[in-house]
């Protein structure tokens, strides 16, 4: 008990310090997740040995992973799965998995027909959408064209690896796994249907839950927690990975409240990002064997390079060939590809399965998890570099023309594409605010110079 409490106190201290350090770094170049992982590795049993991996801390870490995938599943809209971008994202994922399969076949250290080889193949195809969402929101990409493409590819890059884990990493016969998976899906459908019917009928239980949503009972929060923990428990009972149950809980939440519930979202974000998710990343770092990484740096570099080859390259090619995306500039396509190559939670999950099955040693798992942690730092950094080239201004265009006077047509064409992207972003932001483009045009007519910080019809928040 004392060991667990001391470990939790140190984890809480790390969770407080990391955002402060993040703030002090210019341009927030290092995501908070990277600092949490690094701090966990430093404090863990392989270095300072002040954070201990016990049954209690591991359980809380699993809950953090569950909350991460709950929020990721909740952010996924049906449109991102069934729209043109979503279909392209699904096809691209299967292409990346085929490439990953061939890579592992050619990799002498792993066998693609064993748990360790299949775990590596799945890890090479993943996108850490749950980890990416806070970064995308912070950088103002949600609702933009780049953000939409990231969600389309990232959704399948998180959902399909979860299903692949369930089907391909199980030690049971495939037909048994399929039956268990179908049984789990049936339970999830019941879990989604019952509350929906209760809402439609408007019975006393539904009214009680809604009326006590903001009282000490916090019935909505407790109901979602029941959904999350219940489905993860059923996943564990069925010997499925808990990630599947958490993801299903997020889907069900989105189905039940398709238009969102800001109050509920705020409460669960506070629970998740205030305690459970930071704890998950710190504990993931604590499991990293730094000496194993130092002993095998080639594997670290190779795995990151393979992530770029297996995941980023097919996404770039897909964007270049897609009818609705081929007009994107090269920097825009690179930005999407780099963001979608950010990988970590699934790598943690698949390596844990492989280690528990005795198919992968902890040293190799540590290297792969460390590589995933590095992608959380380096891929958004590369994406921000390419995004800056998208956000070039007129002054830069003039400078380029002065330096290359014979390339006027090409330079102007690139900057016209940039202007169209800004226009699309503006329209997306206006839709979020419930305005039309004509509203802004009328507003600029009433405000000389187009400067009117608060429109006449604005509410108290200035919206």
From TrEMBL:
Spans traversing the lipid bilayer: 6-26, 33-53, 59-77, 89-107, 113-136, 175-194, 226-257, 269-288, 300-322, 334-359, 365-385
PANTHER family for this protein: NA(+)_H(+) ANTIPORTER YJBQ-RELATED, NAPA-TYPE SODIUM/HYDROGEN ANTIPORTER
Protein name: Cation:proton antiporter
Alphabetical GO biological process terms: proton transmembrane transport
UniProt KW Ion transport keyword: yes
Superkingdom to which the source organism belongs: Bacteria
Chief place of localization: membrane
Organism lineage: Bacteria, Bacillati, Actinomycetota, Coriobacteriia, Eggerthellales
InterPro entries: Cation/H_exchanger_TM, Na+/solute_symporter_sf
């Amino acid at each position: 008990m004392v060991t667990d409490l001391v470990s939790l106190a140190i984890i809480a201290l790390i969770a407080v310090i990391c955002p402060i350090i993040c703030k002090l770094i210019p341009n927030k170049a290092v995501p908070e997740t990277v600092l949490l992982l690094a701090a966990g590795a430093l404090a863990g049993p392989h270095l300072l040995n002040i954070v201990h991996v016990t049954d209690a801390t591991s359980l809380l870490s699993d809950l953090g992973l569950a909350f991460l995938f709950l929020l990721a599943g909740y952010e996924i809209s049906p449109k991102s799965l069934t729209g043109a971008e979503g279909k392209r994202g699904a096809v691209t994922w299967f292409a990346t998995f085929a490439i990953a399969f061939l890579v592992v076949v050619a990799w002498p250290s792993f066998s693609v027909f064993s748990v360790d080889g299949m775990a590596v193949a799945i890890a090479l195809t993943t996108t850490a959408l749950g980890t990416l969402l806070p970064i995308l929101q912070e950088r103002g990409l949600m609702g933009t064209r780049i953000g939409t493409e990231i969600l389309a590819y990232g959704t399948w890059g998180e959902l399909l690896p979860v299903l692949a884990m369930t089907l391909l990493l199980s030690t049971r016969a495939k037909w048994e796994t399929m039956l268990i998976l179908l049984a789990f899906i049936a339970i999830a459908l019941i879990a989604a249907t019952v509350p929906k019917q209760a809402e439609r009928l408007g019975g006393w239980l539904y009214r009680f839950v809604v009326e006590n949503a903001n009282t000490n009972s916090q019935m909505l929060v407790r109901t979602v927690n029941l959904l999350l923990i219940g489905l993860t428990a059923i996943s564990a009972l069925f010997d499925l990975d808990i990630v599947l149950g958490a993801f299903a809980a997020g889907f069900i939440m989105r189905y039940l409240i398709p238009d969102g519930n800001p109050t509920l979202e705020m409460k669960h974000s506070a629970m998740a990002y205030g305690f459970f998710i930071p704890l998950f990343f710190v504990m993931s770092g604590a499991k990293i064997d730094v000496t194993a990484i130092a002993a095998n740096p080639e594997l670290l570099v190779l795995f990151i390079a393979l992530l770029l080859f297996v995941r980023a390259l097919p996404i770039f090619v897909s964007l270049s060939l897609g009818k609705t995306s081929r007009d994107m500039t090269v920097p825009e396509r690179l930005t999407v590809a780099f963001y979608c190559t950010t990988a970590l939670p699934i790598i943690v999950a698949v390596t844990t399965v492989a280690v528990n099955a005795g198919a992968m040693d902890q040293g190799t798992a540590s290297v792969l998890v460390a590589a995933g942690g590095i992608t959380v730092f380096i891929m958004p950094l590369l994406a921000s570099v390419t995004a800056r080239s998208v956000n070039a201004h007129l002054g830069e265009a003039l400078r380029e023309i002065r330096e290359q006077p014979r390339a006027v047509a090409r330079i102007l064409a690139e900057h016209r594409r940039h202007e169209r992207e800004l226009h699309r972003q503006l329209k997306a932001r206006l839709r979020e605010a419930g305005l039309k483009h004509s509203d802004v045009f009328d507003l600029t007519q009433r405000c000389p110079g187009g400067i009117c910080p608060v429109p006449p019809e604005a509410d108290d928040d200035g919206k």
